[in-house]
Design brief:
Length: 159
C-alpha cells in the first residue's frame, strides 16, 4: 500500500517545491503523477529501475550532483540541507528511498534540468511526455495516464 495522493501532495511535494522557490500547482501535479507511475505512490520503493518514490536511478542521481548541482553551489547547499547529516555521506542513494523530501527535490531537479515547460495539471499527455523524457525514456504514455487514473485521480476526488 502506498501513500495517499492528497497527503503526499500536501505534506511532501508542496512543501518541498516551496522550499525550492517553486509555488506551482502544475509542478505539484507532475511530481504526483511521476510518483504514481514510478512506484504506485510508494507501494514499491526499490526495484531494478531505481530508488524511492520516484525510482531514481543511481546514475541519474550521481550525474545530477556532478553535472547540474556542482554548477550551482547555492542550490546544492539547499538540496544538501534536505539530506540526513551522516546517512547521506555513507549511502547517498539510500536518501532517495528513506527521505521523501530529498527524493522529491531530486525528482524536481531532474525535471528542471530538462528545461521543459511544465504542462497544466489537467494535461495528462503533456505530463506523461515529461515523465518519459526525464524518468522513463522507454515508457509508454498510457502507462503514465493509467497510473494517474488508478492512483491519483480517485484519491484527489475524495471529499
Amino acid at each position: 500500500m502506498g501513500i495517499a495522493a492528497r497527503e503526499l501532495s500536501l505534506y511532501v511535494i508542496r512543501p518541498t517545491l516551496r522550499y525550492l522557490g517553486q509555488n506551482n500547482p502544475d509542478a505539484e501535479a507532475l511530481l504526483l503523477g511521476i510518483a504514481a507511475s514510478q512506484s504506485s505512490l510508494g507501494s514499491a520503493l526499490h526495484d531494478r529501475r531505481g530508488h524511492g518514490l520516484y525510482c531514481i536511478r543511481e546514475a541519474s542521481h550521481a550525474a545530477l550532483w556532478d553535472r547540474y548541482l556542482a554548477q550551482d553551489p547555492d542550490l546544492a547547499s539547499l538540496i544538501r540541507g534536505l539530506a540526513s547529516q551522516h546517512a547521506f555521506l555513507c549511502s547517498p542513494h539510500l536518501e532517495l528511498t528513506v527521505n521523501l523530501r530529498y527524493a522529491t527535490a531530486i525528482a524536481w531537479l531532474l525535471i528542471e534540468q530538462q528545461q521543459v515547460i511544465i504542462p497544466a495539471a489537467d494535461d495528462l499527455l503533456g505530463m506523461a511526455r515529461i515523465w518519459r523524457q526525464a524518468f522513463e525514456p522507454q515508457g509508454r504514455l498510457r502507462d503514465f495516464t493509467h497510473a494517474w487514473n488508478n492512483f491519483v485521480s480517485p484519491l484527489n476526488h475524495v471529499a
